Each structure stands twice: as structure tokens, then as C-alpha cells.
Amino acid sequence: MGTRIGAIPGDGFAAIDEAGASRESLLCGTEDRAFKLRHMLLKRSLSFLMEAHNGISAKIVEESGFEGIWASSLGIATALGVRDSNEASWTQVLEVLEFMSDATSLPILLDGDTGYGNFNNVRRLVRKLCQRGIAGVCIEDKLFPKTNSLAGEAHDLADIDEFCGRIKAGKDSQTDGQFSIVARIEALIAGRGMHEALRRAEAYHRAGADAVLIHSKKTTPAEILEFAEIWQNRCPVVIVPTTYHATPTQAFRKAGISVVIWANHLIRAAIGAMRAIAERIQRDQCLHQVEGEIVGVGEIFRIVGNAELEEAARHYLPAGAATRAIILAASQGRELGRLTDNRPKCMIDVHGQPLLRRLVAALNSAGVRHITVVRGYRKEAIDLAGISVVDNDDYASTGEVASLMHGFDRLGEDCVIVYGDVLFRRYVLDGLLATEGEIIITVDRLWRQNPRARLEDRDLVQSGDEAEYDGPLESPPLLARIGGDLDPSDVTGEWIGLMRVRGAGMVAFKQELQALDEGERRHLDVPALLQRLARRLPVHVHYVAGDWIDVDTIRDLADARNFSRGP
Ligand code: SPV
Ligand code: MG
Q1: Which of 112, 153, 260, 351 has the most CB atoms less than 10 A away?
Q2: By the 8 A CB rule, do 469 and 477 touch?
Q3: Of 32, 84, 550, 556, which is the active-site residue?
Q4: Which residues contact 207 (CB under 8 A, 6 or more apart)?
Q5: Contact at 8 Å (CB) between 508 and 411?
Q6: Which of 461, 449, 457 is nearest to 553 (CA)?
Q7: Which domain holds residue 306?
Q8: Nearest residue CA, atom 5 of ligand 1?
């Protein structure tokens, strides 16, 4: 067993001051969570533990600035949908704890109920907790299976000597010298009076408890303060002011309390918030009203660290991951009216997901993971995980090539370039990635069946050998002309806003971009750039037959919603 700080052999405990603590932390390493909890118990100033009941609530406690976590038996049982009466087994609790411990760097004090049995159960529990990096356990002097202290009146207390055996067995079993055992006194809960509470405190202190938790369910702090007054900090005192919540915290400081536990406030808050939203969605049968009131999924991705996973995937995944993507998503999409008041059109919801997320998911599933989005209008609304962003802040007065130039450094050697308002079936992208060539554009040969936009607003294409596209080609057809001014009789398809550039094609593509003069860089669109490239390089055409959509108008949006239902 390692060295214990502030050990309490006799009466009174040697509270450590902040300076002493920092000396200790240099010795023991500030990463040690058990040390941190022990420090909270022993330092002079008041500390707080906040309840958490699973991984996500543990993360929220940490992000909120708390020093430590109370792994509440009530909270964990409730989150599992069972009663706080040892209905969840101790190994099920351990499993939840493991998620919590992985999710946070804070010290965790487990509310270990009675220790789940006798001295032997406590021994095994403490060993398992030390193995999982849990900082301490609180055990209460009741009998297994216990009932929650705030529920009902029947609370049978354990025999004092038997409970002292549980404490001693726990202390003798800890494999981390800094691990703490807090002995919880239920005498006041059971209506056995102050004398009994103090008698038990003394016995547990002498049995080696690192602190005592004196619990009360009164609505005033009178009995807790009386206990503290008589106890005179013979060892650190922990309290749970759930029922005497109106008490100013200063009263606890004055009484010399070491740690206050806010024991169940996140699970209670979660129940209220979940119920309110569920009832509204059930009533409205629509998500519109609640969307602004709940966190976006981007926040979920942030809090659980999706960005780190993306980074790791870039680091560890082999071939296939080399293809990058640039999504041009700087424009507002004015034709969509009020829908783009607060966000660019790529963030408009299509069946519960923004267009852009669908696009990113399609790229990811085809193995394209290095994705850069060029933002412009309402850039702050583009907050997806797993992408990196560059900004064209001059989006209102510049064109597509200007946006592309902002992503110039991200082109790499192999890059898919795609407009941010396009949806397509997965095989369309797979087909593009499988097509030979170094500059390839995806073109819809069923362009006549897409009557939506005016011809001059569409990126119509004429390829050289369209008649042959159907068969297995040695080499895909070449782009001859692209633009809205083609004679319809020459048109062989419509560019869908998706292309790939790689290898020597990428070298030439970058040279072409760099050779543009200032005016061209600002105002050129991508089809005009492709037309220039096609004059000096082979630009291949990958033909598809429908199965894509670009969202420019409200009608397109309705089509996109139907489209996204499909496979
Ligand atoms: C818990 O949070 O589970 C506790 C405190 O044990 S109490 O619910 O007040 O008993
Ligand atoms: Mg409990």
C-alpha cells in the first residue's frame, strides 16, 4: 500500500492547507484521481461533488468545472430504469462506473450502498474499484438490500462492529494507497438520534474510515450542524443537503464541513427536460418547435470527441483514405427564402439531417475522410463533426473558384470536389471513384427528365463519344464542352456538381488555378474552369442515369426530402 496523506491515527485530522497540498501533489502526481479525492476530503476549504449517473453526465460535470463526481446509486439506478434498492447488481453498477471513469478525468466517489453484502463483498468491491481507477467508495451502515434513504421509514441499521469489519476489510483490500473509504451514518435517517450517530461516527473513524458522511432527511440543517459542532472534525465530514437545500452554503463552511454532495440534480434535471420535449413532439407531431431548444447533434459529436476519432482514422486507416474532398458550401441559397435566414442552404434539414451531413456521410462511407468545407454565408451554422473548414468571407461578391482557392492547400494529390447542395445515391460516388482518368466529372445522361431549372442555369455537357458510354469502355468519354449556352441538340448530359481530380490531373488543375488572374479568380465558376481544362487536358465523363438532386428551390427541397427516403 502506498503512503497515505493526512492519515488519522488518533483524534482530529491534520487538515492540509493549499500550499501543503501542492507540495503533496508534486510528490504524488496530480494525475492521481484517488489523491485528488483524498485532498478534497482533507483540505481546509469546502469542496463539492456533483452527481453523475453515466458517461455523458460525467463529462458534463467535468465541463461544468466541478472537482469531482458522486456516482449516485439513486442516479445510476434511475438511469437504468430500476429502483434504488440494489435491483441493479453490483457488477452492473461497476460497468456503468467504468464508462464514467473513461469519460472523465475527475475523481469519482462511488455511492457503494452497503458494500453489497458483508466484509467479503466489500473486499472484492474495493479491489475492483481500485483496478478501474475509482477514487473512493462510500458505504452506509445498513443491510443489503438497502432502500434509498429518502424513501420510506424502514431503515434497519447494521450492527456497529459488523460494519466496522466492512470498513477494515475495505481498507485492507485497497491496492491504491490514496483510495478513500467514506463511512455513511444512517442513524439520523433511521430516527435513532444524535447520540447513536456520534457513537457510530467514533467507531467508524477508529475502524479506519477516511471520512464520515452524516446523512439527514430533515428540511433544515439543524441536526447536521449539531453533529458537526460536537464532532469537531475528528475526521472529515461529508454531507448531502438534498432535503435541506435552502441552507446557504456558507453555513456548511462555517461548520467545517469538508465535502458537500449535490446528489441527484442532474438525473432530476434530465428527467424534466426529456419529459418536456417528448410531450411536445408527441403533441405537435413535428420537430420544428423544439429544434432550437435542444442541443444540436454537433454538440453530441463534440462532447464525445468525434473529432479525435476522425483524426485517428486519418492516422491509422490505410489506402482509400487518401482521397480527400472539398465541399463548396459558401452560398446562401436565396431562392429558398426564409429557410436560409439563419443558415446556408447546405444546412437545411432534409429528413432530420442537414444536406451537408448527408453529403459528408456519403463521402465517409466511400472511404473519403479528409473533408474540407468552404464556408461563407452564416458560417457559424456549419458545425458538423468530422470536417475541417476554411472560410470565404468574401462569399457575397466572389464566385465558386474563389471559394475553391480558399481550399487550395487542402486539395492534396487526389480530391473529390462537390457542391454542398447536392444529394446523390451512394453508387454514384462509388462509380466516380472507380472511373479511370485524372480529371473526371459525373454527368447525368437523363438530363431531359430533369425539367426544373432553366437550361441556361444548368451545367450542360457535351462529351465526345457519348454513343459509346453504355458499354464497358476502355477509357471513359471525354468532355468537349460544358456550360449553359450549348445547343440542346448537342447536349449529352448535365454535370451534377461532383468531380474528382488526381495525379497529373491535379498538378495541371493547380497550375490552371494559379495561372488565373485576379478577376478570374474572383468571379469564375467551376464549369468555366472545367471548360478551360478540357481545352488542354483530358477531362473524363462518368455518366449516370438520374439518382441525384441539387437543392436550389423550395420544390427541389421537397424532391430532396422524397429522394432521401430512398435507398
Ligand atoms: C444517492 O445519491 O444515491 C444517495 C443520497 O445515496 S440519497 O438519495 O439522499 O440517499
Ligand atoms: Mg445512494
Answers
A1: 112
A2: yes
A3: 84
A4: 164, 165, 167, 168, 171, 183
A5: no
A6: 457
A7: 297-425+548-567
A8: 263
Binding pocket residue ranges, ligand 1, CB within 6 Å: 72-74, 84, 111, 148-150, 240, 242, 263-264
pLDDT digits (tens, 9 = 90+) for 28-39: 434 599 999 999
Residue 420 has pLDDT above 60, yes or no: yes
> Hey, which of 53, 73, 224 would you mutate to test ligand 1's pocket, going by the most ligand atoms within 8 Å of its Cβ?
73
382 or 20, which is more confident?
382
Residue 375 phi, psi (nearest 5): -95, 160
The pLDDT confidence band at residue 314, using thresholds 50, 70 and 90, is low
What's the whole-model pTM score?
0.63
How many distinct structural domains can be found in the chain?
4
Shortest-distance atom of ligand 1 to CA 138? 6
Please check whether residues 238 and 281 belong to one and the same domain. Answer: no
User: Within 13 A of 79's CA, how many CA atoms are on the CB side?
Assistant: 24
Task: List, in order, residues 6 or more apart from 305 with CB less than 8 Å away.
Answer: none
Last residue of a domain, one of 263, 286, 307: 263
Same domain, 280 and 352: no
- Angle, helices 306-316/297-304, rounded to nearest 10 degrees: 60
